[in-house]
Amino acid sequence: MKVVEPNIVFEDNLDGEKILKKLEKIGRVCYKSENKITDQSAENFIRAIIERGHESVIEHISVSIRVICDRGVTHEIVRHRIASYSQESTRYCNYSDNKFGEELTFIKPCFWNEDDEKFSIWLETMKYIEDNYLKLIKNGSKAQEARSILPNSLKSEIVITMNLREWRHFLTLRTSKAAHPQMREIANIILTEFKSKIPVIFDDILN
After folding, report:
1. 98: buried, middle or exposed (CB in 10 Å: 19+, 13-18, 0-12)?
2. How many whole angstroms separate alpha carbon 112 and alpha carbon 205?
3. DSSP conformational letter for 83
4. Which of 33, 63, 126, 170 sits at 20 to 30 Å (Cα–Cα) from 8?
5. What φ, ψ does residue 21 adopt, rounded to 5°?
6. pLDDT tens-digit readout, 87-138
């Protein structure tokens, strides 16, 4: 059995400066103000259109992110409509295979410390589930049958593609203190990365 922390990987090599310049070039079509483009004008232009709520312009850029989290969190992620998703399938992935180390991988809950009795109960339960999942496979069950006992804590990978406007919407909702702790945990990681790569577009979202 393996227990890991949630994580993310950007599937695109983002060049924030190039993205802003492209968005400015597109956005200025609305005003026919292309003559105002300079080497330094993109940042102020994009900041201004976001402040005015003219966010349709930033829909022209999409970003794909691989999220490693528990399956419970993925159920919340896929509720966002304007996106494309590709997710690790428990129907086709047989975790008794060598490529999975013949074990299940679980995401460590962020709300319990390792010295907490509640964490010990969780860990014991995950071990019990792993043992019985492997027994089911050994006794001839297919992966799509044995998955019926897999928990929300099972590690899953999901690649999410959204345009920048939808990422702003997603992160505004999912970094809120009202969000589920594990959803908020992963959303804050994504937001921090976006702020380092394209700060103008995400700096107004608090995490």
Report:
1. exposed
2. 27
3. S
4. 126
5. -65, -40
6. 999 999 999 999 999 999 999 999 999 999 999 999 999 999 999 999 999 9
**pLDDT (average), residues 15-19:** 96
Is 90 exceeded by the pLDDT of residue 207? no
Q: Sheet containing 7-10: which strands, arranged edge to edge? A: 7-10, 62-70, 155-163, 84-87
Q: What is the DSSP string of 146-176?
A: HGGG--TTBEEEEEEEEEHHHHHHHHHHHTS
What letter does residue 21 receive in the DSSP assignment? H
- Residue for token pair 């969780």: 122
**Which of 188, 142, 205 shows the shortest CA–CA distance to 8?**
188
Q: What are phi and psi of 92, to 5 degrees?
A: -100, -20
DSSP string over 85-104: EEE--TTT--TTSGGGTTS-
In angstroms, the first-to-last Cα distance of the chain is 32
Give burial (CB, 10 Å; 0-12/13-18/19+) of 117.
exposed
For residue 103, what are the CA distances in angstroms to 28, 128, 198?
54, 12, 38
Q: Which residues are catalytic?
A: 174
Q: Please check whether residue 23 is in contact with residue 62, taking contact to mean a CB–CB distance below 8 angstroms.
A: no
